[in-house]
Specification:
- By secondary structure, this protein is mainly beta.
- It has a domain at 18-72 and 99-132 and 155-215: Porin (Beta Barrel).
- Helices cover 6% and strands 69% of the residues.
- It contains one helix and 13 strands; from the N terminus they run H-E-E-E-E-E-E-E-E-E-E-E-E-E.
- The chain has one helix at 2-15, and strands at 19-28, 33-35, 40-42, 48-56, 61-84, 87-111, 117-142, 146-152, 162-176, 179-190, 196-197, 201-203, 206-215.
- The strands form two sheets. The protein has an eight-stranded antiparallel barrel with strand order 1-4-5-6-7-9-10-13. It has a three-stranded antiparallel sheet with strand order 2-12-11, with no helix packed on it.
- The protein starts with a helix and ends with a strand.
């Protein structure tokens, strides 16, 4: 019984490191999509929201884990005209995809020892997965006006539902009363794109953003 008591007593410091949790939000510097044709375009959603948790380690180090959400969509228009004798007809195809993106970064941080405002650097890995993906294709025909619509959760442009990346960043930790405010700039390089439709649209594998964390 005594060895077990001593083991538990010795394990307490390992689990009593300062722990903090809070919110994280920001704006992207880069678009989620790269459009190749001028007929294609993306509608960027200029917000990132989520939650964060951090475990402080000795010597200025810490481990941070985030859950970040963003909504994404793209629209692609393609028009085709066919002429048969004196009669011409056209087909307009509109491809619209919407999805939620969930990002899970885990980074090792190092804070420099300065009073009040402490600069820090970070590096780690991240996973990004799509959920609720819907791709709707609408075709409109003329001169006889008619249309057809189809939907799928696996469009031809989808290459990877989940991808992994490498993260680096830098920021400052400001201690204000009982909270910590941490603005930072973060860069992620994704190993593979979510979407890749040659000649039309692809995911941007370079991701840069401005984030602000508020922890208690």
């Amino acid at each position: 019984m005594r060895p077990l008591f001593l083991f538990l007593l010795g394990a307490v410091p390992a689990f009593s490191q300062p722990f903090s949790a809070g919110l994280k939000a920001g704006v992207p510097f880069t678009d989620f999509f790269n459009t190749v044709q001028s007929a294609s375009y993306s509608v960027p959603n200029r917000y990132i929201v989520g939650a964060m948790a951090e475990i402080r380690l000795p010597a200025g180090f810490a481990i941070e884990a985030d859950v970040l959400y963003r909504h994404l969509n793209y629209t692609d228009h393609l028009s085709q005209v066919a002429i048969a004798g004196a009669i011409s007809s056209s087909t307009t195809t509109t491809d619209r995809a919407t999805s939620s993106s969930w990002e899970f970064p885990i980074v090792l941080k190092y804070r420099f020892h300065t009073p009040l405002v402490r600069p820090y650097v970070e590096s780690g890995v991240a996973w990004d997965t799509l959920s609720g993906l819907t791709d709707t294709i609408t075709q409109t025909f003329a001169p006889i006006i008619s249309s057809s619509t189809t939907s799928t959760s696996k469009p031809s442009s989808l290459s990877n539902n989940t991808t992994m990346g490498f993260v680096i960043g830098a920021g400052v930790d400001v201690h204000a009363l009982v909270i910590h405010i941490s603005p930072e700039i973060r860069y992620t390089r994704w190993a593979s794109p979510h979407f890749n439709l040659a000649g039309v649209i692809s995911s941007n594998q370079n991701q840069a953003e401005f984030l602000v964390g508020i922890t208690f």
